[in-house]
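Annotated sample (chain length 55).
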Amino acid sequence: MKPINLNQARKARARAEAKARADENAVKFGRSKADRAKNKAAADKAARDLDGHKR
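Output written by the structure step:
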């Protein structure tokens, strides 16, 4: 059996846990760039329409 470096094993486990936590947060909080752009475009159009009705 080949000996392992415990520091490398500890850091690899920490990286894997951080990646899993990041993936969970991306699902929970994340929105794609396309979603953000679509929502911004809709908000801009609503503001333009409202300004148009004020005149």
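Annotation: The two ends are 81 Å apart (CA to CA).
Annotation: The chain has two helices and no strands.
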